[in-house]
Amino acid sequence: MNNNTAIEQLQVGRSSRVHFAICGSCFWCASVFRSDMLGTCPSCRNKALDTMPISKDEKYVFDYDEKRGVVLDFVPTRKK
Q1: Distances in Å between the alpha carbon of 36 and those of 2, 7, 25, 80?
Q2: 60 Cβ contact list (under 8 Å, min separation 6)
Q3: Is 37 helix (H, G, I), strand (E, B) or coil?
Q4: What are the residue ranges spanned by the domains of the chain?
Q5: What does the pLDDT look like over 8-61, one tens digit per residue?
Q6: What local confidence, expressed as pLDDT, does residue 61 receive?
């Protein structure tokens, strides 16, 4: 197996476990590779973390608006 193949397999393995995590209390958020590692919010220590899986073929854009609150846009990634 060459290095490129190993890297591609690692990326596929990681991308199948990517989650978007957000704290319901302080709105801290991040992309995480292992959602089972998150028990409490690293910012406010609240246990109100919610996670959702992200497909390996999509990305998201996070925004915060005072009127609307947290805004997430999920879009497909472009193939090169």
Answers
A1: 31, 24, 19, 32
A2: 20, 54, 72, 73, 74, 75
A3: helix
A4: 3-76
A5: 444 444 445 788 888 989 888 888 887 566 778 999 999 878 888 888 888 888
A6: 85
